[in-house]
Write a structure and sequence with these properties.
Layout: E1 3-6, H1 11-23, E2 28-31, E3 50-52, E4 58-60, H2 62-72, H3 83-105, H4 108-113, H5 119-139, H6 153-172, H7 176-179, H8 183-192, H9 194-205, H10 207-217
Parallel strand pairs: 1-2
Antiparallel strand pairs: 1-3, 3-4
Helix pairs in contact: 1-2, 1-6, 1-9, 3-5, 3-6
């Protein structure tokens, strides 16, 4: 049985977790933070999440874990069958991370501390996020899923990337729902799914533990 290592307050942890739950793969969860002793054996870059496979091999990086889960557990596929469709899916996932999640992640320290972010930093973040908005408007259909009629890994990736993106946008004033037609209704549908609700409940249950960990690191 695979073991998913990390903590439920991490949006990156929740990407492979959602995929495992969707596919009905039995797995164990190991609550661990990156500063834990010997965590580097699971994730050389000390990043969450990581995964121990049935064979005892260790993998890290959320996108790698999602790809592994798709290949190792092909039932209920989350990637299309044709090469072009599969890579359009990966394209949207990559753009979501590069132009929505990662730039807004730069603002998390200010969000967590309720402190204003420097105007220069906000301007830098907004410039990158604009590219993400343009990318989603060019690629996503939200009809009813991100890329059409089937739920794919792109839906999972975007949904959890928005956890951080929306926190950053609360500081920059960028309204993603207003600027990306279809995003708000798609997000509401995805959030209402029982798997999404379970992941959200686990995330909330880990809130105190996560912020306790953050406080202890200061």
């Amino acid at each position: 049985m695979p073991t998913l290592h990390g903590f439920a307050y991490s949006n990156y942890y929740n990407m492979p977790k959602h995929a495992l739950l969707y596919k009905g793969v039995p797995f164990e969860e190991d609550l661990v933070y990156p500063s834990a002793k010997d965590y580097g054996q699971l994730s050389p870059a000390l990043k969450v999440p990581s995964l121990t496979t049935d064979e005892g091999q260790h993998l890290s990086e959320a996108s790698v874990l999602c790809e592994y889960i798709e290949e190792a557990y092909p039932d209920k596929p989350l990637l299309p069958t044709t090469p072009i469709a599969r890579n359009k899916n990966r394209q949207l996932m990559r753009m979501t991370e590069l132009y929505l999640e990662l730039p807004n992640r730069r603002l998390l320290p200010f969000s967590f501390s309720n402190q204003p972010a420097p105007e220069a930093l906000i301007a830098e973040v907004v410039a990158v996020v604009d590219r993400g908005i343009n990318s989603l408007n060019a690629l996503a259909t939200f009809d009813p899923f991100v890329l059409g009629e089937e739920l794919t890994m792109a839906d999972i990736y975007l949904f959890y990337a928005l956890t951080v993106a929306n926190m950053g946008c609360a500081l920059t004033g960028v309204n993603l729902n207003a600027r990306i037609p279809g995003l708000e209704s798609w997000h509401a549908r995805f959030a209402a799914d029982p798997i999404s609700q379970k992941v959200a409940a686990d995330m909330e249950a880990n809130r105190a533990g996560f912020f306790g960990y953050i406080q202890g690191r200061r």
